[in-house]
Amino acid sequence: MGKGGESIPDEEWERFLKEAEAGTPGAPEEPSARARMVARRLREETGPPEPWRSHRPPRRRGGKAWYVVGLLAAVALLVVALDPGRVVGWFGGGGGDSTPLAAESERPDEAPPTERAAQRPTPDEPFRGSPAARWQAGTAGITLPEARATGWMSKSEVARALSTTRDFLAASSLDPGVLRGERPTKAIALLNPHQKDVQEYVATAFRAPSRENDPLMLFSRFEKSKVRLVGDVVKTRGRITYREGERGALEVSTDVTYVYPVRPATGGSDEIVRTIVRREVVLSWDDPEKVVIEPGTFSLVSYRSDTTNGGCDAVTGYYEPPFGAERSASPPDGPRVDPYDRSKSMETRMREANDTECGTATRS
């Protein structure tokens, strides 16, 4: 078919078939059974819905002529004959397209495609079937903007503040020890010690976690006796932006999604669940001549977080991903959310999802 549904002329089609039958050099061969079965298998694969919860504190184009389409079809069939495995990968039978995505420089217009969502993760490929398979690992997935003099800071000072901001994100959400449940000492040390409400929140959150004082609002932690990470890679996607804030401060906004593949710590289960956390943290690098603050620290302005497969009801200070029967249980009646959709701001997503109501993620 050409553009608009035009059919290929009969005489041209007959010539094409005769050349193929006669073994004309370069003529296509029938694709392997393996390649033909991929699409059917993908349609049959299904998975259980994923629990989700949010938190917040106080074009394809047609060709111009039919022969272009015919040529592309012939080339595709020839590739199948020479390398069927590659074509299977195109259709998701292997790991799919593993080409890393370009850095996120602005908010995307739409959610990532879902055609490979039916593939399940494995110990060797814990991000298989997920958009995160093409994301960068660790801080490489967090885009830093170009520095320029802003407010009370020079260009070099802004660059240093942006880098330290990313260090805070690493110390709070990527540090291996913190992910195993340790206290995020390095991250806490970057918080302005004179910001009383934040210091009280941090102290209370680790002493007696609750909905009002939940350490997971800022820090990613799993209880190592129950959960362990699969491999040592956490995939990330997001960006850091900045502007001049109050009293000439450098106000930095961060919006990052983290994907943690985890499995039960005991029992020998091969089940893998991906805990997906999106955080939006706004902080202020204040002018010490106008704000009481220690050098090298910042003040928190606001912070939001929502989570897929991190637990919903109990607040223990750790993510509690569901496994086995718990994961197969009936999903809650709350809103349905795509945790990989970064086309909406956190504020919009939470407003649509009724803030803290438990719901169902459409994929993980």
Task: Note down, in words, how this protein is organized.
- Helices cover 27% and strands 18% of the residues.
- The chain is an alpha+beta fold and 364 residues long.
- It has 2 domains: 3-90, no CATH class; 131-361, no CATH class.
- Strands 1, 2, 3, 4, 5, 6, 7, 8, 9 and 10 form a 10-stranded mixed β-sheet that branches.
- 31% of the residues are buried.
Range of strand content: 15-25%
Number of H- or I-type helical stretches: 10
Residue runs with pLDDT of under 50 for 5 or more positions: 1-6, 24-47, 58-95
**Sheet bearing the most strands, described?**
10 strands, mixed
Mean pLDDT level:
79
Number of structurally distinct domains: 2
Helix and strand content put the structural class at alpha+beta
Alpha carbon gap, first and last residue: 36 Å
Rg for CA atoms: 25 Å
Gross morphology: globular
Order of helices and strands: HHEHHEEHHHHEEEEEHEHE
Measured as a percent range, the helix fraction is 25-40%
How many runs of DSSP E, i.e. beta strands?
10
Descriptive key words:
364 residues; alpha+beta; 2 domains; 10-stranded mixed beta sheet; 27% helix; globular
What is the topology?
Blueprint: H1 10-21, H2 33-44, E1 50-55, H3 66-82, H4 84-90, E2 136-137, E3 142-143, H5 155-173, H6 176-179, H7 185-188, H8 196-207, E4 227-229, E5 235-244, E6 250-264, E7 273-285, E8 299-308, H9 324-328, E9 336-337, H10 346-352, E10 359-361
